[in-house]
Amino acid sequence: MRRTIAGALALVMLGLCVAVAAQEKPQEKPPAENWKPEKLTNLKVLPKDTTPDQIMTIMKGFAQALNVRCVACHKGQLEAPLSTFDFADDSKENKEVTRSMILMTRDINTKYPDGLPEASEKEPAVTCATCHRRNRHPEKELPPNAPPNAPPKAE
Fold it and tell me: What is the rounded distance in angstroms from the CA atom of residue 128 to the CA atom of residue 62?
């Protein structure tokens, strides 16, 4: 009888251990918010007919090219849901700088296509990444693997 009681207690203890272990699982990080705006406001440089899907792609491109997060240009809190941001707000200087840089790259790609590598209709030759290379500020020196500029040929 003692063995039966001991066996039953052992099973109960085992069950409790399993239940406690199941409750102590580390909590998983919630999935990333897949938010996008319903409509766009305050577009000053991008075309007025830019869709919410297009703006999300464009903004992800900026973030990757400069290695920054949305809060670099937009009013909101780091790690807060995107739905809480005030994207139309123009109080951050970086937002105006970005608009200037968009105009600059558009100008370069439009005025100097012959001096640029071949571009496609979807991919311009000069982008944010051309100079920034995942840095918040443009690089001042060529990457180590870039060929040195050849001097002009004497004529």
Answer: 7
Q: What is the pLDDT of residues 81-98, one digit of tens each?
A: 999 999 999 999 999 999
C-alpha angle 71/134/117, rounded to 5°?
125
Tell me the domain boundaries of the chain. 52-132
Three-state SS for 86? strand
Which spans in the chain are helix H? 2-23, 52-66, 93-111, 128-132
CA dist., res. 148 & res. 142, Å (int): 9
Length of the chain: 155
pTM exceeds 0.70, yes or no: no
d(CA 103, CA 97): 10
